[in-house]
Amino acid sequence: MSSLHLFWPLNQTKKTGIGIVSISKSGEIALAVASFLPNVKATVWLNGNIANAVFPLHYKDVIFSPLTANHERITVTKSGILDIRDALEDPMVKENRASLIPIERASSNFLFVVSEDDRNWNSAYYAEQACNILKEHGKTNYELSKR
């Protein structure tokens, strides 16, 4: 994440901070970057996850455990495509909370944009939970847009 500092010397970079745009799997990484680096001022999160999924995520001495998948919840659509929307365990359940990205630490403004037709993640649920977490911590630096 310290590679973001490579942008500071560029003339095109505003010195007040940077923004991040993410989609799907990169959403959790964008949330982690915003949570740990104070120079991130805006984070746009499109159909992502609020917890680390699939592989452990490391930042300095912090390791986020991955959410595991329940393969029995994977279905196949009529067209033969795997529907993995509900495969991951719920990050809000006590035993899975170690995978949650601590977005309440962030000073970034957040825009959560979700398609309710997303079949890769339950991104509408994740975005609602992200807003709930921020609200519970007294934050108002977020907006949710569902399509």
What does this structure look like?
The protein is of the alpha/beta class. It is built from 2 helices and 8 strands. α1 links the parallel β1 and β2. The longest helix is centred in the last third of the chain and has 14 residues, at 123-136. The two termini are 31 Å apart. The model has no long low-confidence stretch (mean pLDDT 92).
Quick overview of this protein structure:
The chain has 147 residues and is α/β, with parallel strands linked by helices. The chain is built from 2 helices and 8 strands. The strands form 3 sheets. A 4-stranded parallel beta sheet has the order 1-2-7-8, covered by helices on one side. Strands 3-4 form a two-stranded antiparallel sheet. A two-stranded antiparallel sheet has the order 5-6.
Q: What fraction, in percent, of the residue positions are helical?
A: 10-25%
- Quantity of strands, as a count: 8
Q: Biggest sheet: strands side by side, in what order?
A: 1-2-7-8
How many helices does DSSP assign?
2
**Could you tell me how far the N terminus lies from the C terminus, measured between alpha carbons in angstroms?**
31 Å
Shape: globular
Strand and helix order: EHEEEEEEHE
Low-confidence stretches: none
Radius of gyration: 16 Å
- What is the averaged pLDDT score? 92
Beta-strand portion reads 15-25%
User: The biggest beta sheet, please?
Assistant: 4 strands, parallel
Q: Strand pairing plus helix content: what structural class?
A: alpha/beta
